């Protein structure tokens, strides 16, 4: 029996221990429950702040207490719309909640929430501090909302205003301070909707205006249908640039003024200076700092220096009452005008150079070969940048875009076979190699020559049948056969080594794109024919007119090559000893004779008033031997006395009387007597 009692006692003890454990676990469980719910406001706090950061205002209003919304005088949707209009409508982005704190509130069951929002406004970064309560409503916790949670200091039906002051865009100037791109006041044709008459009268008026202004009726109707338009408003239709349309007697038409971007040289510098245009969604995607409806540089120098030219837009973001009376300034930024860009260009030279080749496909480069200053970069045909910047019609744009002669193409930066102007380089390389000398004479019979029968039906041809030719004669008469033979005598290794010193693949440090040159398609010529053709400036050579001017600078600069520059305050960049000073001088002496000798191909440029060194060139583009192809005409000329002005000009597909030499006679005379 004792044993039995002992067992019962033990069982009872275990039972008591079990009950004690349940009590302990219950107490512990209660502690865990309270620990997990020390922040009963956490869900609403996090959802509220997250929706602010994501700018999801529909979701944000779900976290607000019904009572506070009612007390504010707003409907829930009104709050959503107000936040959306302020933050999304005014392009306020990158909202981030910081320094978030919650403490027990004074009233039972409430908590005090404080936080800071940092955000990016169109005027810069803005910090705002906020304080509100988290209150229990029914079974849930909610945010106690008031207008001060939009911005500190707001109440009632206050509004937020953003007033922007765009900066004046900087000017692009030539070396003398003349304006190449500027801001100018222009007349603007507009309509007063309330004065357009009845439906029938209005339709007839729109039709007349469409014809007079060369804009579509659909465009006019679209402008009149904008949401901001009222009967007494001025609705701009077209900015007038260099035109005076006949609008007399048309009802509802009036005139205003606006500031436009204007290009005084018009077509003469269009590809180089470029033009401005409205920011697009694609522009903003590439550069998020841009603002909608702003003007930016689209092409040329306008695009290259857009950041400097654009300046900093200023303005004020402020709280105002319902009557738009200012209550508080949230952020203010002063407007900073854009910088002026001073170039090396000479506007008068640019205009003259364009005048000479306008009407043909071509390009002209005018450069100081000693300093590298580019005084003119001209391409023809061209386009009117004033139309592009200030509202070009579809008809005018299509006339440019579909023009087979490519008016948007910058021909001065495009690669071409240089033709016979390149013989000057072959001569200098040959002299440096000890192969060529000025008086080295070759016996050449006839106008056709080939190395041997291995060339099959391929022949090198020349224009003048001169039986005895030295290097000077070969430059005067522009003899292809002489230089083909000199190239073959040098051999590929020597000739190519000399060519590489001219840095064909060098990328110029310029604010515009310029195609790099090439000697040949492959690293080796691969045949004697290609070597020979290259020696007189054809083959697979590709050199832009601007790069040609750079290479030919060695002859005005005793063998030193000067790279081009377009900014006036930029340091010059040079490569010495591209050819020896002696070779450069001897080629220059021969180029002086190309002008002074009656047989010289540039004799038409001869003047008793100045000394001119020159070389002409023709690069023929044809499908096969013994056929007539298109001819690109080139002119290389520089001042033989001061060496300070060098011209390279190209005429594509030159016809009779359209050689680069003949077309540029007045330009050369202007430059040499300036």
Descriptive labels:
25 strands, Penicillin-binding transpeptidase domain-containing protein, disordered N terminus, transmembrane, 22 helices, five-stranded antiparallel sheet, Nuclear Transport Factor 2, Chain: A, alpha+beta, 5 domains, penicillin binding, Penicillin-binding protein 2a (Domain 2), Beta-lactam/transpept
Layout of helices and strands:
Layout: H1 2-36, H2 42-54, H3 57-61, H4 66-72, H5 76-88, E1 93-104, E2 111-121, E3 124-137, E4 140-143, E5 159-165, E6 172-173, E7 179-191, H6 199-213, H7 217-224, E8 235-239, E9 253-262, H8 270-273, E10 276-278, H9 281-286, E11 295-297, H10 300-304, H11 306-310, E12 314-320, E13 326-333, E14 341-342, H12 347-357, E15 362-367, E16 374-380, H13 385-389, H14 394-401, H15 423-432, E17 442-443, E18 448-449, E19 460-461, E20 468-469, H16 471-477, H17 480-500, H18 528-535, H19 545-552, E21 561-562, E22 574-575, H20 581-596, E23 612-621, E24 630-639, E25 646-651, H21 660-663, H22 665-672
Parallel strand pairs: 6-14
Antiparallel strand pairs: 1-2, 2-3, 3-4, 5-12, 6-7, 7-8, 7-9, 10-11, 12-13, 15-16, 15-25, 17-20, 18-19, 21-22, 23-24, 24-25
Membrane topology: Single-pass membrane protein
Protein name: Penicillin-binding transpeptidase domain-containing protein
Subcellular location: Cell membrane
Structure characterization notes:
This protein is of the alpha+beta class and 674 residues long. It has 5 domains: 1-38; 42-157, NTF2-like, domain 1 (Nuclear Transport Factor 2, Chain: A); 158-178 and 264-340, Penicillin-binding protein 2a (Domain 2) (Alpha-Beta Complex), CATH 3.90.1310; 192-251, Ribosomal Protein L30, Chain: A (2-Layer Sandwich); 348-672, Beta-lactamase (3-Layer(aba) Sandwich), CATH 3.40.710.10.
């Amino acid at each position: 029996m004792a044993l039995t009692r002992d067992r019962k006692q033990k069982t009872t003890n275990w039972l008591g221990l079990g009950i004690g454990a349940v009590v302990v676990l219950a107490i512990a469980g209660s502690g865990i429950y309270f620990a997990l719910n020390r922040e009963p406001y956490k869900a609403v706090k996090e959802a509220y702040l997250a929706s602010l950061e994501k700018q999801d205002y529909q979701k944000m209003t779900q976290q607000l207490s019904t009572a506070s919304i009612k007390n504010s005088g707003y409907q829930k949707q009104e709050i959503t719309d107000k936040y959306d209009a302020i933050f999304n409508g005014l392009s306020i982005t990158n909202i981030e909640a910081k320094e978030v704190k919650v403490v027990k509130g004074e009233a039972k069951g409430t908590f005090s929430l404080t936080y800071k929002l940092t955000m990016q406004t169109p005027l810069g970064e803005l910090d705002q501090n906020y304080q509100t309560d988290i209150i229990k409503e029914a079974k849930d916790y909610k945010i106690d909302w008031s207008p001060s949670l939009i911005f500190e200091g707001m109440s009632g039906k206050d509004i937020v205003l953003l007033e922007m002051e765009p900066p004046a865009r900087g000017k692009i100037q030539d070396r003398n301070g003349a304006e190449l791109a500027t801001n100018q006041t222009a007349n603007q044709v507009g309509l007063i909707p309330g004065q357009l008459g009845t439906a029938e009268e209005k339709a007839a008026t729109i039709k007349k205006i469409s014809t007079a202004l060369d804009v579509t009726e659909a465009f006019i109707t679209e402008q009149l249908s904008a949401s901001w338009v009222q009967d007494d408003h001025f609705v701009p239709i077209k900015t007038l640039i260099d035109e005076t349309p006949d609008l007399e007697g048309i009802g509802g038409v009036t005139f205003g003024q606006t500031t436009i971007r204007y290009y005084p040289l018009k077509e003469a510098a269009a590809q180089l200076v470029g033009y401005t245009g409205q920011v697009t969604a694609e522009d903003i995607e590439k550069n998020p700092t841009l603002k909608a409806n702003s003007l930016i540089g689209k092409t040329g120098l306008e695009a290259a220096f857009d950041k400097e030219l654009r300046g900093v837009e200023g303005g004020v973001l402020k709280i105002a009452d319902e009557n738009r009376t200012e209550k508080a300034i949230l952020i203010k930024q002063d407007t900073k005008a854009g910088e002026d860009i001073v170039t090396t260009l000479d506007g008068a030279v640019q205009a003259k150079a364009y005048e000479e080749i306008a009407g043909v496909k071509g390009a002209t480069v005018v450069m100081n070969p000693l300093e590298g200053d580019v005084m003119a970069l001209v391409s023809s045909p061209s386009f009117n940048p004033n139309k592009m910047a200030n509202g070009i019609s579809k008809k005018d744009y299509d006339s440019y875009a579909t023009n087979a002669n490519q008016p948007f193409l910058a021909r001065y930066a495009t690669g071409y076979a240089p033709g016979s102007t390149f013989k000057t380089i072959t001569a200098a390389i040959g002299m440096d190699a000890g192969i060529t000398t000025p008086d080295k004479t070759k016996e050449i019979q006839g106008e056709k020559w080939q190395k041997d029968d291995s060339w099959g039906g391929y022949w090198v041809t020349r224009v003048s049948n001169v039986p005895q030719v030295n290097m000077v004669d070969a430059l005067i008469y522009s003899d292809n056969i002489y230089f083909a033979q000199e190239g073959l005598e040098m051999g590929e290794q020597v000739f190519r080594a000399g060519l590489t010193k001219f840095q064909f693949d060098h990328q110029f440090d310029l604010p515009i794109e310029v195609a790099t040159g090439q000697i040949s398609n492959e690293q080796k010529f691969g045949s004697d024919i290609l070597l020979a053709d290259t020696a007189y400036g054809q083959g697979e050579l590709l050199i832009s007119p601007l790069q040609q001017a750079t290479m030919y600078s060695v002859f005005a600069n005793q063998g030193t090559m000067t790279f081009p520059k377009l900014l006036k305050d930029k340091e010059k960049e040079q490569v010495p000893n591209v050819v020896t000073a002696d070779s450069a001088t001897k080629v220059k002496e021969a180029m002086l004779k190309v002008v002074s000798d009656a047989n010289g191909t540039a004799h038409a440029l001869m003047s008793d008033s100045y000394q001119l060194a020159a070389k002409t060139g023709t690069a023929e583009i044809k499908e096969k031997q013994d056929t007539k192809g298109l001819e690109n005409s080139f002119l290389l000329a520089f001042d033989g006395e001061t060496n300070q002005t060098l011209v390279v000009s190209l005429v594509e597909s030159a016809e009779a009387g359209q050689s680069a030499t003949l077309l540029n006679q007045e330009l050369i005379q202007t430059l040499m007597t300036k």
